[in-house]
C-alpha cells in the first residue's frame, strides 16, 4: 500500500545518497548470503581492485558502474551475488606517491627508527628533488606506504558508496594484507614445486629511474625524437660497410652486424668479419630473418643490448655479451674485454660514468674525429620502449630474476591458454582477438621479480658457500607452514638468524613480486583459496571478470595463466571489457596528458544517479567522450531520475489498487508494450548490453509519461468505476515494473520511489517478468501507439492555432485506415478528455491524421 506520509511534497535527488546508503548498510541489502547458496545459484564477480594511490578518476566510475548494473540485475533475478572489493595497494605507484607525499626515499641499509616522523606530513612534497628526499629504512618506508594506502582506501570507499556500488563491504581485501601475502606466496611455492617458476640470469628490460626489472606486459611505445647516424665499419680489404643507428653510444657493445639472409647486397659478407669504428673490435657479419632489408642501409649492428630484437639475435645466434650500461643507466667503468687496443680503451674511458645521452654525444664526436661518421645525423621520430609508469627510456641489462612460464616457450601451454580464451564469453566478442594476439605474440616467460620495497616478498633464501658467495642455483623455498614470510627478517629453514650473511649460512631474497603476480590471483584472494575451501568452491570459477581493455595483456592474461597452472580451468565464464574515457578531442584521458577528470565534484553537483546514467549509456568496449564543461548525458540522466520521482508521486496519488482488473483496451495496450520492453531489456542484460536495456526502458518511459499518462489521467481522476480502476491499476503496475527496470542504473531514485508504496528494497525485489504483464496486456501494442499519434495531432493543432493546450475543442476528426479507426474508437473517451473535445469523429484515410479541428472561442473573444 502507498504510504502517502512518506511521499515528499517536492521530490528531490538531493540527500538520497546518504539516506539510502545508510539503510542499505544497516539492513545488509547487498550482503552475500552463503547459507543455503548453491554453486548454480551464485553470481560471482572478480572485481578489479583499484590502485590505492592518489585519487579515482572518471574512468573508474565509468567501468565500475557497468559492473554494478550487472550485479544489481543478477541480484534481482534471485542470484546470490558475490561482489567483493579489493584494493591494489602494493607497487611502484604507491612507492612513488609515498616519496612525493612524505619527502622520503627508501635505503635498505639504514636501521629502523621506531618514532620516525616524515619531513612532510600531508603535503605532496613535489617541490623536493629526489636527491633531497630523506633516506629511511625499508621498514619505515613500508609503514608509510601502509599508512597512506589506508587513507586513500577510505576515500575510495566513500566515493564508491556515494556512487551506489552494491558491493558487499564485508568481502574486502588488500593486496598487501597477510591473507594476500599468504595466497601470493603459496601460489609461487606451488609454481616452483611444479617447475613453473625458475630463476635465470638473462637480459632484462630495466627502468633506470625505479631501478627495477620490467615485464613485457608493462611496456609501452612512445614516439621520441632522435637521429640516425651513418657509420662506417671497416672491412679487411680496406673498404667499409655502412650502417645507420640511432644508438651510436652502443658501438662498444657491438657483437655483430646482421642482414637478411636473402639480401644479395650482403650475402658475400656472411661469415666474414668487420671492425668497429673508434673501438677497433673485430665482429662477425651474420644473417637472420628479423633483419629488415628496407630499413636504413639494410644491415644493422647487434649490441648487447640496444633493444628486444638484439636480445633475440643474441640468443638465437649464440653471440657474446658485452653489456656496457649499468643499473643506473650510465656507462659502466670497466670496458668490455673485447676492446684490446690502447686507442679503443682510451675512447671507452671518455664514456665511463656518462648517461646514455651524454655518451651518445661523446661517441658522435669520436666518430667525427676518426672520419667514421659518414654524414650529419638525420633527425627522426621513432617509437622507444618505456615502462608504462616510467619517465625515461628502458635499457636492457643482464640480471638474475625469477620467471613464471607463460606459454612463450611451451606450445602445449600456449594452446591450453588459447582454448581457455575460447571458453570465456567475451563482451564485446572482438576483445577475444586482443587476448589471442597477446598470447600468440609472447616472446619470453613472465618476469615476476621486482627490485622494489613495498610488495609481496619472494619466499626464498640462498645458501652461502664457504667462500661467502650466495649459491643462487640452490634456492631454499619456504614451506607452506611458514607463509606468509619475509626472507629479509626471517631465517631460512634449517638456519638461525646468526647465520644470515655468513659463510656456510644463508641470505634472504630481497626482491618482491611484480604487483601483477598478486593481482593475477584476485579470484583466489577474494574467494578464500586454501583459507576458506567452502567459499572458494561456491564462487570459483567466477561468473564475471569486468575490466578495462588496456589490461587484457596484463591482468586478464595473467589471471587466466595462474588459473590454468593451479586449477586447469578458465577463471570466469564471462569477461566484460569497458572502453576508455576520452576528452572532447577524442584523446584518452590520462594523468600525463593533464586531462583527467575526478568524479567527486560531478557526484556532488549532479547526483550519483545522473553520473551512473551517463556511464550506463555506453556499451562495453566503446570509448565514451566526456566534456566536464558540458556533461550533456549526465544532465539527461538527472532529468530522468527527477522525472521518475515526480511520475511516481503523481501515479501514487490516484485512488485504487494495482491488482485491480485492467479492462480498458488502451490500458491493456500499454501493458502489452511494457511486456515487450521487459523482454528486450532482459535479453539485453543477459547479453551484457546494459546500454540497450537502458535505451529501450527509457524510450518507453518517456512515451508512458508524455502520452499514456496524459491520455488516461482524467479517467484515473474520475469517479470510482471499472474504467477508473483499470487506469489506476495499469499506471501502478507500470510504475512498479519501470522502477525495477531502472533500479540497476538509477538506484537511489528507484529506491526512493519504491519505498513510497512497497515494503523492502527494490534492489532485492523480483526482476520484472513478461508473464506478470502478458495476461493483462492482450490488446496489443498498436492501440497505444495510434492513440499517441492522435494525441500528438490534437496538440499540434492547438499549437498551430497559438492556443493553450487547455483550450476546449468544439469538434475534430481523426482520419486513419479502417483497422486503426476501429482501435482508436476504443480510446475515444480518453482522447476526448485529454483534448477537451466536445465532438470527436472518425473517418477512413490512408494515413493517420487529425483534421477539421474547431476550437471553442473564449467568451471574451466572442464578445469582442
UniProtKB/TrEMBL annotation:
<dbReference type="InterPro" id="IPR014729">
    <property type="entry name" value="Rossmann-like_a/b/a_fold"/>
</dbReference>
<dbReference type="InterPro" id="IPR009080">
    <property type="entry name" value="tRNAsynth_Ia_anticodon-bd"/>
</dbReference>
<comment type="similarity">
    <text>Belongs to the class-I aminoacyl-tRNA synthetase family. ValS type 2 subfamily.</text>
</comment>
<dbReference type="InterPro" id="IPR009008">
    <property type="entry name" value="Val/Leu/Ile-tRNA-synth_edit"/>
</dbReference>
<dbReference type="InterPro" id="IPR022874">
    <property type="entry name" value="Valine-tRNA_ligase_type_2"/>
</dbReference>
<keyword id="KW-0067">ATP-binding</keyword>
<dbReference type="GO" id="GO:0005829">
    <property type="term" value="C:cytosol"/>
</dbReference>
<dbReference type="InterPro" id="IPR048044">
    <property type="entry name" value="Valyl-tRNA_ligase_actino"/>
</dbReference>
<keyword id="KW-0963">Cytoplasm</keyword>
<dbReference type="InterPro" id="IPR002300">
    <property type="entry name" value="aa-tRNA-synth_Ia"/>
</dbReference>
<dbReference type="InterPro" id="IPR001412">
    <property type="entry name" value="aa-tRNA-synth_I_CS"/>
</dbReference>
<dbReference type="GO" id="GO:0004832">
    <property type="term" value="F:valine-tRNA ligase activity"/>
</dbReference>
<keyword id="KW-0436">Ligase</keyword>
<dbReference type="Pfam" id="PF00133">
    <property type="entry name" value="tRNA-synt_1"/>
</dbReference>
<feature type="short sequence motif" description="'KMSKS' region">
    <location>
        <begin position="588"/>
        <end position="592"/>
    </location>
</feature>
<keyword id="KW-0030">Aminoacyl-tRNA synthetase</keyword>
<dbReference type="GO" id="GO:0005524">
    <property type="term" value="F:ATP binding"/>
</dbReference>
<dbReference type="GO" id="GO:0002161">
    <property type="term" value="F:aminoacyl-tRNA deacylase activity"/>
</dbReference>
<dbReference type="InterPro" id="IPR033705">
    <property type="entry name" value="Anticodon_Ia_Val"/>
</dbReference>
<keyword id="KW-0547">Nucleotide-binding</keyword>
<feature type="short sequence motif" description="'HIGH' region">
    <location>
        <begin position="50"/>
        <end position="60"/>
    </location>
</feature>
<dbReference type="Pfam" id="PF08264">
    <property type="entry name" value="Anticodon_1"/>
</dbReference>
<feature type="domain" description="Aminoacyl-tRNA synthetase class Ia">
    <location>
        <begin position="23"/>
        <end position="104"/>
    </location>
</feature>
<feature type="domain" description="Methionyl/Valyl/Leucyl/Isoleucyl-tRNA synthetase anticodon-binding">
    <location>
        <begin position="667"/>
        <end position="810"/>
    </location>
</feature>
<protein>
    <recommendedName>
        <fullName>Valine--tRNA ligase</fullName>
        <ecNumber>6.1.1.9</ecNumber>
    </recommendedName>
</protein>
<dbReference type="InterPro" id="IPR002303">
    <property type="entry name" value="Valyl-tRNA_ligase"/>
</dbReference>
<feature type="binding site">
    <location>
        <position position="591"/>
    </location>
    <ligand>
        <name>ATP</name>
    </ligand>
</feature>
<comment type="subunit">
    <text>Monomer.</text>
</comment>
<feature type="domain" description="Aminoacyl-tRNA synthetase class Ia">
    <location>
        <begin position="132"/>
        <end position="626"/>
    </location>
</feature>
<dbReference type="GO" id="GO:0006438">
    <property type="term" value="P:valyl-tRNA aminoacylation"/>
</dbReference>
<comment type="function">
    <text>Catalyzes the attachment of valine to tRNA(Val). As ValRS can inadvertently accommodate and process structurally similar amino acids such as threonine, to avoid such errors, it has a 'posttransfer' editing activity that hydrolyzes mischarged Thr-tRNA(Val) in a tRNA-dependent manner.</text>
</comment>
<dbReference type="InterPro" id="IPR013155">
    <property type="entry name" value="M/V/L/I-tRNA-synth_anticd-bd"/>
</dbReference>
<keyword id="KW-0648">Protein biosynthesis</keyword>
Amino acid at each position: 500500500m502507498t504510504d502517502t506520509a512518506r511521499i515528499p511534497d517536492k521530490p528531490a535527488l538531493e540527500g538520497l545518497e546518504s539516506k539510502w546508503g545508510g539503510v542499505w548498510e544497516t539492513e545488509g541489502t547487498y550482503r552475500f548470503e552463503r547459507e543455503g547458496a548453491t554453486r548454480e545459484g551464485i553470481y560471482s564477480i572478480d572485481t578489479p581492485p583499484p590502485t590505492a594511490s592518489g585519487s579515482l578518476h572518471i574512468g573508474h566510475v565509468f567501468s565500475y558502474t557497468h559492473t554494478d548494473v550487472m550485479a544489481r540485475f543478477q541480484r534481482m533475478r534471485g542470484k546470490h551475488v558475490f561482489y567483493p572489493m579489493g584494493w591494489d595497494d602494493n607497487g611502484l605507484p604507491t612507492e612513488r606517491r609515498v616519496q612525493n607525499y612524505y619527502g622520503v626515499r627508501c635505503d635498505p641499509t639504514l636501521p629502523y627508527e621506531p618514532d620516525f616522523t616524515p619531513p612532510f606530513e600531508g603535503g605532496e612534497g613535489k617541490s623536493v628533488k629526489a636527491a633531497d628526499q630523506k633516506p629511511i629504512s625499508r621498514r619505515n618506508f613500508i609503514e608509510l606506504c601502509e599508512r597512506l594506502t589506508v587513507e586513500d582506501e577510505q576515500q575510495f570507499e566513500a566515493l564508491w558508496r556515494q556512487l551506489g556500488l552494491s558491493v558487499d563491504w564485508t568481502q574486502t581485501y588488500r593486496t598487501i594484507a597477510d591473507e594476500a601475502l599468504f595466497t601470493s606466496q603459496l601460489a609461487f611455492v606451488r609454481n616452483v614445486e611444479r617447475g613453473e617458476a625458475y630463476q635465470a640470469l638473462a637480459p632484462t628490460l630495466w627502468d633506470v629511474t625505479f631501478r627495477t626489472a620490467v615485464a613485457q606486459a608493462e611496456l609501452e611505445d612512445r614516439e621520441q625524437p632522435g637521429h640516425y647516424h651513418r657509420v662506417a665499419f671497416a672491412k679487411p680489404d680496406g673498404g667499409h660497410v655502412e650502417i645507420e643507428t640511432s644508438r651510436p653510444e652502443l658501438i662498444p657493445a657491438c657483437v655483430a652486424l646482421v642482414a637478411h639472409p636473402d639480401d644479395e647486397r650482403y650475402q658475400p659478407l656472411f661469415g666474414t668479419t668487420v671492425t668497429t669504428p673508434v673501438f677497433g673490435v673485430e665482429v662477425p657479419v651474420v644473417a637472420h630473418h628479423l633483419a629488415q632489408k628496407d630499413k636504413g642501409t639494410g644491415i644493422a649492428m647487434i649490441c648487447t643490448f640496444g633493444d628486444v630484437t638484439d636480445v633475440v639475435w643474441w640468443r638465437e645466434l649464440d653471440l657474446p655479451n658485452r653489456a656496457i650500461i649499468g643499473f643506473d643507466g650510465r656507462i659502466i667503468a670497466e670496458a668490455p674485454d673485447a676492446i684490446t687496443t690502447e686507442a679503443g680503451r682510451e675512447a671507452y674511458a671518455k664514456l665511463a660514468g656518462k648517461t646514455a645521452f651524454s655518451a651518445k654525444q661523446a661517441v658522435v664526436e669520436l666518430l667525427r674525429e676518426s672520419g667514421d661518421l659518414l654524414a650529419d645525423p638525420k633527425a627522426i621520430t621513432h617509437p622507444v620502449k618505456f615502462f608504462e609508469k616510467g619517465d625515461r627510456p628502458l635499457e636492457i641489462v643482464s640480471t638474475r630474476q625469477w620467471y613464471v612460464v607463460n606459454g612463450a616457450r611451451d606450445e602445449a601451454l600456449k594452446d591450453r591458454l588459447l582454448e581457455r580464451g575460447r571458453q570465456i564469453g567475451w563482451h564485446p566478442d572482438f576483445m577475444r582477438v586482443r587476448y589471442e594476439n597477446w598470447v600468440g605474440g609472447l616472446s619470453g616467460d613472465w618476469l615476476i621479480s621486482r627490485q622494489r620495497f613495498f610488495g609481496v616478498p619472494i619466499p626464498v633464501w640462498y645458501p652461502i658457500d664457504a667462500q661467502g658467495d650466495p649459491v643462487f642455483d640452490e634456492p631454499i623455498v619456504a614451506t607452506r607452514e611458514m607463509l606468509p614470510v619475509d626472507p629479509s627478517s626471517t631465517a631460512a629453514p634449517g638456519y638461525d638468524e646468526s647465520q644470515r650473511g655468513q659463510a656456510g649460512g644463508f641470505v634472504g631474497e630481497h626482491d618482491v613480486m611484480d604487483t601483477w603476480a598478486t593481482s593475477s590471483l584476485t579470484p583466489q584472494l577474494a574467494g578464500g583459496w586454501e583459507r576458506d575451501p567452502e567459499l572458494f568452491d561456491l564462487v570459483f570459477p567466477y561468473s564475471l571478470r569486468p575490466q578495462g581493455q588496456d589490461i587484457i595483456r596484463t591482468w586478464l592474461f595473467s589471471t587466466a595463466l595462474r588459473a590454468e597452472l593451479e586449477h586447469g580451468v578458465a577463471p570466469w565464464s564471462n569477461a566484460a571489457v569497458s572502453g576508455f574515457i576520452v576528452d572532447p578531442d577524442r584523446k584518452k584521458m590520462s594523468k600525463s596528458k593533464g586531462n583527467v577528470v575526478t568524479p567527486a565534484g560531478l557526484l556532488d553537483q549532479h547526483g550519483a544517479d545522473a553520473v551512473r546514467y551517463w556511464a550506463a549509456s555506453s556499451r562495453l568496449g566503446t570509448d565514451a567522450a566526456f566534456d566536464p564543461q558540458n556533461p550533456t548525458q549526465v544532465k539527461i540522466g538527472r532529468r530522468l531520475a527527477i522525472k521518475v520521482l515526480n511520475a511516481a508521486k503523481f501515479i501514487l496519488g490516484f485512488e485504487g489498487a494495482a491488482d485491480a482488473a485492467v479492462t480498458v483496451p488502451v490500458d491493456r495496450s500499454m501493458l502489452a508494450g511494457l511486456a515487450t520492453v521487459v523482454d528486450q531489456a532482459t535479453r539485453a542484460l543477459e547479453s551484457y548490453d546494459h546500454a540497450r536495456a537502458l535505451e529501450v526502458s527509457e524510450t518507453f518511459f518517456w512515451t508512458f509519461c508524455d502520452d499514456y499518462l496524459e491520455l488516461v489521467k482524467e479517467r484515473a481522476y474520475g469517479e470510482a468505476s471499472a474504467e477508473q480502476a483499470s487506469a489506476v491499476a495499469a499506471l501502478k503496475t507500470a510504475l512498479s515494473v519501470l522502477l525495477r527496470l531502472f533500479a540497476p542504473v538509477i538506484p537511489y531514485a528507484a529506491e526512493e520511489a519504491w519505498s513510497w508504496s512497497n515494503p523492502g528494497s527494490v534492489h532485492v525485489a523480483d526482476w520484472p517478468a513478461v508473464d506478470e504483464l502478458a495476461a493483462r496486456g492482450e490488446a496489443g501494442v498498436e492501440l497505444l501507439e495510434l492513440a499517441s499519434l492522435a494525441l500528438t495531432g490534437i496538440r499540434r493543432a492547438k499549437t498551430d492555432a497559438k492556443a493553450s493546450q487547455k483550450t476546449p475543442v468544439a469538434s475534430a476528426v481523426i482520419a486513419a485506415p479502417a483497422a486503426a479507426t476501429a482501435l482508436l474508437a476504443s480510446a475515444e473517451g480518453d482522447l476526448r478528455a485529454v483534448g477537451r473535445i466536445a465532438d470527436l469523429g472518425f473517418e477512413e484515410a490512408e494515413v493517420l491524421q487529425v483534421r477539421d479541428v474547431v476550437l471553442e472561442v473564449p467568451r471574451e473573444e466572442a464578445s469582442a
